[in-house]
Specification:
Blueprint: H1 6-19, H2 36-41, E1 47-52, E2 55-60, E3 63-67, E4 101-103, H3 114-121, E5 129-133, H4 137-145, E6 154-158, E7 163-167, E8 172-178, E9 198-203, E10 206-210, H5 218-227, E11 232-236, H6 243-246, H7 253-263, E12 268-271, H8 285-296, E13 304-306, E14 312-314
Parallel strand pairs: 3-4, 4-5, 5-6, 10-11, 11-12, 12-13
Antiparallel strand pairs: 1-2, 1-14, 2-3, 7-8, 8-9, 9-10
């Protein structure tokens, strides 16, 4: 899978310094207060809550799944260096309902955060189960327990196309780890030693797909051919400029629309924007670019929209 070279990174950073990038948001990005009491009591409704960036809370049939949890103020190898959070988490770690399963898409710091994983591990009522890309399992087990042996952590490693089931109140949730075009690392010396991917969460009440980070490729067409349709998808729409550098790593909003069509999603929510300033476009530009891309294709704008930090979408599917 493509990954940026050191020369590419230097060329990009040099251009950023000369151009005084990234550009600031044009308008304020505001969240809303989450309905914490409802989220904690929810056992029947299907709901998606945007915490921020790619961090999501997915609830279906009494099962609570936390995806790519990042609650920290800074994402990077040390707490004082790295991109700083522009928006506070829409839902704080201590406000979460009891989490059954934590899903990770890949090892990059804005998706896989040490302090956040430890916070969730300490939740009242017992630690969650962690489903992680192949190669990350030992690191996650050691990280969340602060133990070299990793004892006390329930962690399962997934290769592409691996599947698990989790029992719900009325039916099981199927979890499929699927290939998309991206890459992984946590240091200069472990590039692509762990997998990366997207997740399909299939339940009779709702078929949901989380894109993770991805560049546009045949993979999303393959996912659509394999699964046929999804009721809802969460698709990355931000961190895409400059295109010469980002096109193999992150889709732009117009490509995200094509991804929605490729996988057969009836509706999509844009994520991976508005939280950390990672690339050159303004933090608030992705939703505007998404709206233009939707309009250019004549698609109903309600089919692909964004949430505010802390907002919950209660999902009603037509059967």
């Amino acid at each position: 899978m493509p990954a940026p070279t050191a020369g590419d990174v230097w060329r990009w950073q040099r251009a950023r310094l000369r151009g005084r990038l990234p550009r600031p948001p044009r308008a304020p990005i505001t969240g809303i207060a989450p309905d914490v009491a409802w989220l904690r009591a929810n056992r029947d409704s299907t709901a998606l809550t945007w915490i921020g960036h790619s961090s999501l809370l997915w609830q279906v049939d009494g099962i609570t799944v936390l995806i790519d949890p990042v609650f920290s103020r800074v994402v990077g190898p040390v707490p004082f260096a790295g991109p700083r959070r522009h928006q506070p988490p829409g839902l704080a770690a201590h406000e979460l309902p009891h989490v059954d399963v934590v899903l990770l898409s890949h090892a990059h710091y804005d998706h896989c955060d040490v302090r956040s994983l430890r916070a969730v591990h300490r939740q009242p009522g017992g630690a969650p189960t962690y489903l992680v890309p192949l190669g990350l399992e030992r690191w996650v087990a050691r990280t969340v327990t602060r133990s070299s042996s990793g004892r006390g952590a329930n962690v399962a490693a997934f290769g592409w196309d691996d599947t698990a089931r989790w029992p719900g109140r009325t039916a099981s949730l199927e979890l499929h780890f699927l290939a998309v075009q991206h890459w992984s690392n946590r240091s200069l010396f472990d590039r692509n030693r762990t997998l990366w991917g997207s997740w399909a969460l299939l339940h009779p009440a709702c078929r949901f797909w989380f894109s993770g980070d991805l560049g546009y490729s045949q993979d999303t067409r393959d996912i659509g051919a394999r699964f046929g349709r999804f009721d809802l998808a969460a698709i990355a729409i931000g961190a895409y400029e400059p295109r010469w550098f980002m096109r193999t790593q992150h889709v732009a909003p117009d490509e995200a629309v094509q991804v929605m069509l490729d996988v057969g999603a009836e509706r999509a929510i844009g994520v991976h924007w508005g939280t950390f300033s990672l690339t050159d476009e303004p933090l608030d530009e992705p939703p505007r670019a998404l709206a233009r891309a939707i309009a250019a294709r004549g698609i109903d704008p309600s089919r692909f929209s964004v949430l505010r930090h802390g907002e919950t979408l209660r999902v009603i599917t037509a059967r």
